[in-house]
């Protein structure tokens, strides 16, 4: 899944694709590089982000979705708002990538796929003090309950996503990745997004011996390592900014997974 952020303030590429023509061209490039899905979003959900008004989010995403879906590309909408999800589906999106995991009944009503991503709290404050007794069990429990409710309501396809960085400390993120097999074992298809995220910057900063975090544009290796780990654990989709590099990694790890399955 390739990321198309039609936002002025996304943490990794904010402002680069706020012009619809540039966002559409970027989506085409990601598809040509091998993305199966183009994930179009009009609201940054980075820690501390301020919410975007519904009409502004609609203005950003609808023309981009219409154009890309009109070229027969598979488009998902990355949103937390029901009205945006509904308008996006009318514009041609066929997957609601729901970073609040609250729109399962909307996906069921519209007959489109739903990705339920776990988040604790709201973006503005979610990183203030994330707390879990057992992060893996709690995230799995919440996602499975919501996924089964959406399937029972008639959603045709439901994905689950641990929501790396959404109300989670670096230790919580690492625990969720280390135990990704427990999400895969639910039998629901798993989607994971680690691309360019802060915990990678922190890990890479430490291993370089440098104080602090490596910058967002220097996290490619960390993004690839975690995407590859996720695929090896059985995740069926990874959400990434660097599609070409990730597709290459996927081909290599995919060849090994096929070999192991055949052995
Ligand atoms: N992460 C982000 C946004 N949407 N959707 C899913 N399913 N999983 C994720 O991990 C996920 C997501 C955050 O990344 P990005 O879109 O690059 O940043 P921003 O929220 O600043 O636009």
Break the fold down into its secondary structure elements and pairings:
Elements lengths: L1 E4 L14 H13 L5 E4 L12 H17 L4 E5 L2 H9 L4 E4 L5 H7 L2 E5 L17 H19 L4 E4 L8 H9 L1 H5 L6 E2 L5 H10 L12 H14 L3 E2 L4 H20 L1
Parallel strand pairs: 1-2, 2-3, 3-4, 4-5, 5-6, 7-8
Helix pairs in contact: 1-2, 2-3, 4-5, 9-10
The structure holds 6-hydroxymethylpterin-diphosphate.
The site of 6-hydroxymethylpterin-diphosphate has 21 residues, from strand 1 and strand 5.
Provide an overview of this structure.
47% of the residues lie in helices and 11% in strands. The protein has helices at residues 20-32, 54-70, 82-90, 104-110, 135-153, 170-178, 180-184, 198-207, 220-233, 243-262; strands at residues 2-5, 38-41, 75-79, 95-98, 113-117, 158-161, 191-192, 237-238. The strands form two sheets. A six-stranded parallel β-sheet has the order 1-2-3-4-5-6, with helices on one face. Strands 7-8 form a two-stranded parallel ribbon. The mean pLDDT is 95. The chain contains ten helices and eight strands. The protein starts with a strand and ends with a helix. Strand 2 (38-41), helix 2 (54-70) and strand 3 form a beta-alpha-beta unit. The site of 6-hydroxymethylpterin-diphosphate has 21 residues, from strand 1 and strand 5.
